[in-house]
Write a structure and sequence with these properties.
198 residues; eight-stranded parallel beta sheet; 19 strands; 0% helix; globular
């Protein structure tokens, strides 16, 4: 059965959106630069969905990431007004990219139970806090961007995977530690207390 993507971009759409009306066969949803707001129910997304992007919309409220479609490969919830804590312990096993940047998410993050195949995580410009545990990052991960949060304390960077190419921890002023740069890794650590050893 043919599945057509839903694309709403740069439209003067207003009000709320109910994802229960999405077709059960849809695989891609892209909603960007609208006036759609209010809360979103990610638990209502169809199981067929592989790529879901909400970017530059005034959505508010929390984001339940524990009951996402099992086939999801890409999730973007960016440049919105979403807040609350985020649970990363039950993400879809097929997820490759997670982008939650420029919101108001807060609390600590558990990065020890990520999907084995995840490749990119853009979590910058939020209010995440606490100490980051990088001891069990997936070997598939090649980009981790947590710039502009409130992470703090001593962080052990000795076990980051060799596949990691970009590590941006800048603008976490109370984060401490040492990063030894190996291979093609690029480390951005401005405005932190982290020592980068080339």
């Amino acid at each position: 059965m043919v599945s057509f993507p839903l694309t709403w971009c740069d439209m003067e759409l207003r009000g709320s959106i109910d994802f229960r009306w999405l077709p059960e066969t849809i695989e891609k949803v892209f909603i960007s630069i609208t006036y759609l707001g209010e809360e979103i129910d990610l638990t209502a997304l169809p199981q067929s969905l592989k790529k879901f992007e909400l970017c530059v919309n005034p959505f508010v409220g929390s984001a339940d990431l524990m009951h996402l479609p099992g086939n999801m490969e890409l999730l973007v919830l960016a440049v919105s007004k979403l807040d609350g804590t985020v649970n990363l312990e039950h993400l879809p096993c097929k997820l490759k990219t997670l982008s939650l940047y420029q919101n108001y998410f807060s609390g600590t993050l558990n990065l020890t139970k990520l999907p084995d195949g995840i490749q990119g995580m853009q979590l910058w410009a939020n209010d995440f806090s606490g100490t980051m545990d990088l001891s069990n990052l997936p070997a598939s991960l090649n980009e981790l961007v947590v710039e502009g949060n409130d992470f703090s304390g001593w962080t052990d960077f000795s076990q980051i995977p060799e596949t990691l190419k970009i590590l941006d921890i800048s603008d976490n002023e109370d984060m401490e530690g040492e990063v030894v740069v190996q291979g093609d890794l690029v480390v951005i650590a401005g405005r932190t207390k982290v020592k980068v050893i080339e």
